[in-house]
## 1
Amino acid sequence: MKCAEGTDVNLGSSVVTCPSCQKKNRVPDVALGRPGCAHCQRALPWIVEADDSTFSDAIVCDLIVLVEEYANWSKPSLLVTPIVNQIAQDYSGRLKLVRVNADRSRRIEVQYKLKGPPTLVFLKDGHVLEHIFGAQPDKFVRRQLDSLFMARV
């Protein structure tokens, strides 16, 4: 993966354990391409935390971006977070999950018309494809995501 050109950001990264071979890999927060395991070459889940200052760089991506607006105080957010984390695992190589704390991201909330946590937004090339407001079951979120993938074919 190469870093997005023109980004003037202090690049962060996280360590991700490959679901296939269990090897640890460093995955950058901002890059073009798809993260893959250095050992077995399988796709890795791509989960990034962003706020108002890092969001525009975090969504620069060749993949569909799932933005999760959450809040630690929101009980519905506590239900949604494990669902989107599992989706990020299951759609490795096809999806980037960008998690946004509602308490630190007011500008994002206004720009993307988020109605408070939990809200999910699907983006492609920075454009909104779909909103999901409130806690929705896993099957509902996957159906929406699968319909977006089919529409892109």
## 2
Amino acid sequence: MDKQKVLIVDDERDMVEVLLGRIERLGYESIVAYDGKEALEKIETENPDLILLDIAMPEPDGIGVLCWVRKQIKSMDTPVIVLSANSETETMSRAQELGSIDYLIKPVKLTEVEAIIKKWLPQA
């Protein structure tokens, strides 16, 4: 059986490295995108099982990526967890309206990220 895939979308390379290590220790396959355009390409080619998505990044931003994901029939059920330093209520509400399953404010607790991933991607 193939490993479940987690796409990390963040333009902060340090954050990506921390998340990569944690996700791989949990037994999932990691895919990385450093901007919105690359994220859209990876979503189409890799079909991730879960997406960790930053909001503030090069075009399209995380909200743009989330809009696109939710418009794609094949991606409607893909859990998207927003990890962002943006704590504005409007942005958080918009992400929720677009179907993010959670919104964690950076700096995030890795144990919290782990728990959410395990909830949505239980391992066989």
## 3
Amino acid sequence: MAERPDRASRDGWLTSLFLRIAPVIQRAPRWLKAPLIGAAGGIIVTVLRGSILLVSSPANPKNFGLFLLALVVAGGAGAVTGVVFNIVRIILRRLSFFGDILTGVTLGWTFILVVLLQAKFFFGDDLLATAGDWRVSFYIGAGLGLVGTILYWYDCWRYPS
């Protein structure tokens, strides 16, 4: 008689990974939870995006090295964003609806800015060479923050505590 597979093996590798990471984050001190969640989120998104790019690009060891570097950059950007969340949320919590929007936009800006500044200063990328580049990065960050805020609201509506 075959054994019934456990939940992690039925749901896939991403769910399995999340189920292993979540208890570690829950046991962390309160001030450390947001940076850990930010780093984990940045890494997970980079793994998903990087896997697609690695499969679709020609086989080259340099591409895998860049993928690993992107994991470090995204994890660092997520952790910095988590630290900013700890600071900004205390201030903006009192503004209710508008505080949520401002928090989301600020976090989107922070994440994009940290990624682009790392690219500029550590890797010699010239993405932030003009004032237009800065404006576009702020628009993208604001959009990312608004999407994150809407997802947060949906989660709060769907699973009220």
